[in-house]
Amino acid sequence: MKHFAELFSALDQTTKTNAKVAALATYFREAPDDDKLWTIALLSHKRPRRTVTTTLLREWAAEAAEIPLWLFEEAYPVVGDLAETIALVLPMPVAESDNSMSDWIKVIKGLEGKDDNEKKHQILLAWQALGSTERFLFNKIITGGFRIGVSQKLMTRALAQATGIDEPLLAHRLMGDWSPETKTFTELVLSDDPRENLSRPYPFYLAHPVEGEPDALGPPEEWIAERKWDGIRGQVIIRGGEIYVWSRGEELVTDRFPEFSPFKDFLPDGTVLDGEILPWREGHPLDFQTLQTRINRKSVSKKLLNEAPVVLKAYDLLESGGQDIRDHPFSARRQALEDLVARNNVGGTLMLSPVVPFQSWADLADERAMSRDYGSEGLMLKRKESPYLAGRKKGDWWKWKVNPLTIDAVMIYAQSGHGRRANLFTDLTFAVWRGNELVPCAKAYSGLTDAEFNELTRWIRKNTLERFGPVRSVNAEHVFEIAFEGIQRSSRHKSGVALRFPRIHRWRRDKPIEEANTLSDLEALLPAM
Amino acid sequence: MALLEFTDKGIFCPTARVYLDPWRPVERALITHGHSDHARAGHRHYLATAAAAPIIRHRLGADVETIAFGEKLTINGVEFSFHPAGHIMGSAQIRVAYKGEVWVFTGDYKTEPDGLTETFESVRCSTMITECTFGLPVFNWRPQTEVLEEINDWWRTNKAIGKASVIGAYSLGKAQRVLAGVDPSIGPIFTHGAVEGTNEVLRAQGIKLPDTTYITADIPRSSFAGSLVIAPPSALGSSWMRRIGPASTGVASGWMALRGVRRRRAVDRGFVLSDHVDWQQLNDAVKASDAERVYVTHGYTSVFRRWLETQGYDARIAQTDYEGEALDESTKENAEADVTAEGGATS
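The joint structure predicted for all components is written out below.
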């Protein structure tokens, strides 16, 4: 574990991308294959099956630290991370171990099916033999959620440096639902057998927001515009007579969207579509919350299919006739997509995301202004000549969202954040007026600078009215402008409405709370039902 | 009438009519140490230890009467004495005795000797008023020697690659502790103006510190390669850093024990070095005082109070305006500004 702990410290001790990549590349050159494989897995948010519950871990840690459980629980939100809290409260190690990271993972996996006493014995032995960083990592492997400022992209770049394999090819190999339990490092990274991985998706190409006006993008005739849909990004793969549906989170979601299952009977083998999975009824998108009911269910009932029907709004073709055509220009891929849809009468669940015609950027600005009428959140701009790249590469794909809706609301509750914001009050609840009462309508976590959060935290400490566990109610005194993308009915908040993507736009120090918006202002924004 | 009361101006002794570390202007203030949440502007009379007074004069421009450690001062029958708190140079706990009853107000304190400040002295009492800045079991300091060695190693590594090592340390106390603790044979040591101002005051009162060079705009950037630069933490994210050239950055603070806090600072290294007691030291100090009743003033007060209660103490929370180890000096300075604004008195 020492080697992995050194890597972790090196990554954790720098904010510089190049230093991180260099540290990872060195590790990928030196570490044993099993450790490398597990490192890739952990950084891709895969972890061994959980064999010990976090409840038990907390109890054992408190016991080992000779403190009552309630005291441990009080310390946890301050630290903001369970694995770290455990590592910090435990007494100093009394032994040393030469076990590598993958050896410890074997120990963790070996706990499967053991009784609690045996598990406790093994875990305590591990804690006694590991230094503080190693202990933290050991706990993290069990509890999951590795966040060490290394994106998939950085990891892939480092692996490319260490192996000499092309970065896009590696990115492709690392996609999909492989597991370190069933693959070796050689199989995953070094060898490639396309037939072995029919389900493997291509890395998604992601757009950048347009900065300012799109005029800077050059002549309008070089661009294609589409509506930007507020669904989930999806890749539909038809290979070997099967269909695979991937979400952008690299999750295989085929079973959640049985509507797409007939595609495999209509579309030719070796077809890969990129598009938006969108809840849709009678020519119009439904709100995102409707889609949420589908995302969260592993299996879908007939009732749910009726209540929340989805379509694929296809906008790109990545593979045609088994050929990877990502390097063809977008205009050609788009044409091939249109031909494919026209030739094969799949039915209503496969729709083309229509092209928005325009002559000038001014035309397009008018189209953008009408976005909400189409149930869309803006426009997408794609360069006609552009290949389909991997990841968020600037230049060819832009999203031009409509300006957010905003309201002025009063902060009434505050809660401290997690992880790196653990001792700042960053989780804030905002309210609007209903008569003389302030009713909560949104929670927001972002949008203020660190300095503003610091200032607000100091204010909250001095202006706490009541505490409900980690949540504090505070004097109604500060007004914030909250930006959001949409609004819908919801029982989550007392106001009966919920905002989509709420975030703090501005601290309105100039506004007294009496001038905050009212619930009727918000209700006026609700889509007509 | 209690011997000490907690009022909206500060901790008050009604019999002697004096305040301990008051946060609003009062007639007579007994001051534990010069940090700005304890020594505020606007009081009529100040009393502090001889070692703490120069800084208070320097910061507030006020007249400060002095008292020696252990010396007894009796006001209207109440006996006051100051005892080393080990927090920063001259920092004291204040013992208050009247008709056989003894209270101790700790101010801020640290029990591990650091070789620079007067070593903490445990004072027996029946009622203890203690800080608990780090009163949670996740705070467990390693010995100072290990942390200083980490800083030395970091400095050596940076020197080898031609970088400056810029360490953020609170300008009064922590900065001098780092300065006195590192190995000056590694390279030259530069200081930010806020740190050097404090150094000058301390040197003038006879405290030996390694040689430092105050960073002025005319020093070329190339001079800093391989050096150690000591600055207040807030300077690390500011445009002042542009004067330094290529550098690795670190912060020395007890809060660096938490990875989340360390990451939010966006510095390369966090050194866990605090001028306050950790969990075990705090518990040991309470135990050694023999107190039956404990007031907790600042830090994780509600949790630590509950914990003390389970340990059999009569434990209570006292509302104060003290801040303990702030991550940034700016927050303490703001607090000071608030008070001067309210009191209308500036110095």
